[in-house]
Design brief:
single chain, 173 residues, alpha+beta, PH-domain like, 3-stranded antiparallel beta sheet, 7 strands
């Protein structure tokens, strides 16, 4: 469960979209490739220096794997009943947090490209806002068509509630 520190009164988390599990499988594939390379180098160069270099390499490579995993693990859309919060881990110690009101959402798109994306059901969710330069986009999103439809339903529900309140304030009901 996701906890927002700056949640407003009456606001509740409707849904959270995180990256698809296939991203972590790809990080594991990186590790497997490097295990094969490392073992093959040690088979041909069975010296003390080769073992020391292999240990140093694995120390740095394990840090690389951790950072790569962290960059994907911390990316998420948090959709509340009032706003969308997009948390994106750009690189190690570099995080972007973008918020937008649900009333500013213009369109929500989903794209599924390629055979693996269709088999494993992942793709890209893109949220276009009314701001001049903001396009919230998550690649490797799970079940993109369903997720984008749920986001649109939350946005429509928000607009229905607020258009009714505006009519009440104007004395039209």
């Amino acid at each position: 469960m996701v906890h927002l520190d700056n949640i407003r009164s009456g606001e509740k988390v409707e849904m959270v979209v995180r990256r698809h599990w296939i991203v972590f499988w790809l990080v594991g594939l990186y590790a497997l490739v490097w295990v094969i390379i490392s073992v093959s180098i040690l088979m041909f160069l069975n010296t003390a220096w080769a073992h020391i270099l292999n240990i140093v390499f694995w120390m740095f490579f394990s840090i690389f794997l951790y950072i790569e995993w962290l960059n994907h693990e911390l990316d998420m859309f948090v959709i509340t009943n009032n706003r969308i919060v997009w948390v994106e881990q750009k690189s190690f110690l570099n995080r972007w947090v973008t918020e937008c009101n649900l009333g500013q959402v213009q369109e929500v798109n989903s794209i599924t490209k390629g055979i693996f994306a269709n088999i494993f059901n992942y793709g890209t969710i893109s949220i276009q806002t009314a701001w001049n330069m903001t396009n919230l986009e998550m690649t490797f999103a799970p079940i993109p068509l369903t997720q984008s439809r749920k986001i649109l339903n939350i946005v429509d529900h928000y607009r229905d509630q607020h258009s009714f309140k505006q009519k009440e304030w104007a004395g039209l009901t």
